[in-house]
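Morning run. Coffee first, then this:
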Amino acid sequence: MRKRFLGIIALALLTTACSDDDNQMDMGNIQAPSTYEFTRDGASTVSFSGQTTRIQMGEALGKALMDPATSSEALKAMYAHEAGTPNFDDETLNASSKNIRSKVAASRDYFFTNSTLSAAIKQDFETWIDGQANEVFSSWNQEAAAGVPGFIQEAGGGSVRYVNAKGLEYDQIVIKGLIGALMTDQMLNNYLSVSVLDEGANRANNDNGVTEEGKSYTTMEHKWDEAYGYLYGTEGNPASPILGADSFLSKYLGRMEGDPDFAGIAQEIFDAFALGRQAIVEKNYELRDAQADIIREKVSMIIGVRAVYYLEYGKQAFAANDKAAAFHDLSEGVGFIYSLQFTRNPETNQPYFTHEEVTNYLETLLAGNGFWDVEASTLENMAAEIAARFPFTVAEAL
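And here it is:
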């Protein structure tokens, strides 16, 4: 896969090499390293600690959302953490100036001129967090029914699910929603954006090897690495990721890679990150931007595939008369559907689905008694509509 992928790029770019300065090169000769390791004067130039921290905060929030002893105030304090506040069990996280909320729906390309929508999306997560504490935690020992929050157990003595009055698991929409609103939006629409990579003197500084004060990396190198960190930031060895280290993009890229219909996608995404980073080192910005487009398409597909997957599996669970399993699948599906608005089609530079389209889908699924009453045909049609925007079929997503 690696040789084939790089060979295609080399062939396409072979005749477009620069020829007017000391940076002259044959773009087809640029090769990505086999591991994500880059150095300057013997020191690593790769840094994405902020992304690792936010992923870890997201993991901690996800666990707390299933602890009925946790208050709404404590959960929202984790979401909007302030440095020095003991919101986490990890003292390193408590000391951090980072938080989740500030980076939700905060990309340069999608939200810089739309602060109203950004604020509304940030508030969505607070509303769901409040719902978990005030509706679900308070009904933890009550059996759920249509219009009644509480617990419901999967068929055959399986997992117990805790849902609101419409059958929705708030913790699932929060975690899967963050995959889009935090990780995907920051990666695809912020750090890989030309407006961020080439901001101010970034290109001139990268051309001349001018690093950030006290650092080994240029600003452009760092921005690209921050995008990388939202996918691989919790890996034991991020230079050679194996996937599945956290509950966010890493987990679901691993799931997709395990599907024979999408085998190779993990290598394609890694190769694009590594080749794009090498292109920055080589000062070849056309090649860099081509890799950003590959990442946008492939990462967006993760969200599209999982949205379709969970809609279809929810439908199948209903057919098997297992409401609890269906509610769980649809709760995950709702989170991925919400995340569709943060994807990016490289052909249009717009999300594959707009905020309005996503809102309509959620309103349809949660109308009336929500999942208790949803029709199989509604799930089927929605899955087909989502798949039709992407280069995969419903059958391939399963």
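The first strand starts at residue 39 and ends at 40. Good start to the day.
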